[in-house]
Each structure stands twice: as C-alpha cells, then as structure tokens.
Amino acid sequence: MWLFLDHECDGKRRQLLEQHLDECSPCLEQFGIEEHLKVLLARKCGGEHAPDSLKQRLRAEIRRTVIDQGGVPVQDK
Questions:
Q1: What is the DSSP string of 9-47?
Q2: pTM of the entire predicted model
C-alpha cells in the first residue's frame, strides 16, 4: 500500500490496486487510514530528509544482512 501511496509502483500494479480499492470497502478504509497517517507524518516531520551519510550506512547494513542471510542482492536507487 505504501508503494501505491508514494506513487512508486508501476502502472499495471497501480491499476490493479485502484480496482481492488473500488471493490473492497475494508481495504479502502485501511487505505484511508494509511493515507491520513502519511499526510500527518509529512506535516509533523516538516519534510526533513535523512543525511546522505545515514542513508549510505543503512544501505551498507542492509546489504550485509542480505548477504549474511543468503538472499538477493540489494540495488541502489
């Protein structure tokens, strides 16, 4: 749902989610709660961004964790 809210999913997935939300009132209700939470967080956090050094450390730690667990490598955005 967060990918949908952040406009980060592809067009086909977005269309499927929109269709599902049109047909499923429990999911639509949950979507409304998450959408409201996202707006509230954006307002309260003032749009601050994490420093690049923190992002780099997090990416490195995620890569180490994935490698340690034998998973799929993580790609940079």
A1: S-HHHHHHHHHHHHH-HHHHHHHHHHHHHHHHHHHHHTT
A2: 0.49
